Structures are given as C-alpha cells and as structure tokens.
Amino acid sequence: MKFIIFGPPGSGKGTYASRICPRLEIAHIATGDIFRGIVKGEEDSPLALGIQSFMSKGALVPDDLVILLLKQELEKPGAKNGFVLDGFPRTVEQARILEEITPIDAVLSIKIPQEILIAKISARRTCRECGNIYNIADIQREIDGVQYNLPPMLPKIEGKCDKCGGELIQRADDVVEIVKNRLETYENQSRPVLDYYKGKIPFVEIYVTQDSDTVSEQILKDLKEVGFANGQESVSA
Q: I need a labelling partner for 231 at 20 to 30 A (CA). Which of 117, 174, 182, 215 fits?
C-alpha cells in the first residue's frame, strides 16, 4: 500500500497519517518532519541552514534536495511494506518525478475550509523535542450548512508533551502571516497536483468535520471500501 495524503498546510496530514499507518503496518514519511529533524540535529550545517531559510519564509524546499532525502527514506526497511507520503509531492513536477521512483496506489485528499485551517494552524503547538503535535483551538462553527466540531487536542500538563515531557512551542511557520503565505503557495503550486492524479489512481476524500480519531476511523473504513485496508481495528486502540 503506497499512498499520498494530500491537503493544505495544517489540514491534519501528519495527525491522520500517524494514526492510520500503525494499523496498516506501513511507514509514515513526512518530509516536513525530516527537514525539521535536520535543522534541529545538524544546527549550523550548510544543509540545516539552507532548509531553515526556506521553511522560515513558508517557501518550498528545492526539488533536488527533497528528492534526495525522500529516496533515502524509501530505502529504509520500514517503508518496504508500504507508506503514506506526507508533504510530497507538492508540485506537478514532483509528482512526475515520483512516478519514476515508485508507483502510488491512492491519494488521500483532505477537505477543510480555509478559515478553519487558519484557526487550527495558529493554535497548533509542537513538542520541541519529539515533534508531537497538539492544538489549543476549540472550533465549533457552521460553514455553508456543514457543522464543524473540532475539539482541542490538549496535553495532560499545559505546555508539556505527554510523550516525552518536552516543551510545547508554536512553530515559527505557524504564525498567521506565514500561514497565509503557505496557503497561497499551496493554491498556486500544489493544488494542481490533485488534478494531475485524477483519473490515474483512486481518491479517498477526507472531510475534517469532527475530532481526529473519528476522522481517522472513517479513513480506514473508506480505504477498506476501495480494497486497501481491513478496517477492523480501532485507530484509538
């Protein structure tokens, strides 16, 4: 099973992938996490500084670097049974290059209004140590006749990660000004990727109207319907 999870910044790609991948016994390959790990681990190296310069502006990291790092991830043992690509491809050119590297079985396409996205992203908090994600926003609103009930994802201790006890911070690229720039970049460069894949491989559409566990359960059920998952285990188990 080889999937791409696709959606705007802050739509929950990492959250949903991290919940469904263990149940499907496939790898979660998140290019953003790879970049942040390099920035944190290598600090003042040319590679880390170069990646940080793009991320701090909400711009895309150059293709040649992304593809080099992606190939390294795909060669790891954990990716042999399959994977969910999170954050790649972001352009049609990247999608074409990906076709030369590996086949893709389906696109998981996240649907969520922009005003919900901005509220979610600006309220996101990330563990400085392990990268675990929380969210302090409690979103209860109706848009175009659809009710959105998105409760906060809070840590047990305010400001501390449940997983490792690390400090929770707001990432530099999660402030409203950069969020808007990232969404504009998505609309201009990344949305055409969906058009590129339509008609080529199956789509599973993900509507983010409820809490992450409920949405994750629905993803597994939808994957089962198109023949990719057994859909029998609970993602919250």
A: 117
